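User: I'll paste a sequence; please echo it back and then give the predicted structure.

Assistant: Echoing your sequence first, then the prediction.
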Amino acid sequence: MTTHQGEDAAAGSAADESQAAQRALKTQLFDQEQEPGKPCPCGSSEGLHGEECDCEDGAVLIHTMRIPGSRDDVTLWEDHFACSYGCNSYTEKVTLPDAPWGVKETATDGRGPRERIRIFRGIRHGNYPGLIEL
C-alpha cells in the first residue's frame, strides 16, 4: 500500500487538531470550582485569581467560568470571576496560544472562498454553536 505525502499531512493535521481540541476542552471545563485560599483548578494564578474583594472581610474572587472571548481570535478566552460573598463579578480576557478554542479554515462553495472558524466540539461559545463566518 502506498501513502501519499498529502495523506500523511492530513492524518498529522487531524491528530494535531484532535490534541488541540482536547486541550481546549480541558481549558474550558476545568474539574472543579476554585476554593478560596487554594490554587485554581484552571492551572493559573495570574490575573484576578484569589484577589480580595472589598465588599466583606475575607471575600475573594473565585474563577467560575471560562468561555471563548472573541469572534475571530481562537486563542482569546474570557474568564469570569465572582466574589465569594456574591457581591461582585468580573470578566477578564486571557490569551492562551497553546489552547485555541477552534480552528480557522477556508471554505469554498458557490460564493467562492471565505474564511470561517470551526469551533471544537464540546466548546461553549455564546451565540455561536459550531461555525463563525468571518
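The first strand starts at residue 61 and ends at 68. The helical segments are 5-28.
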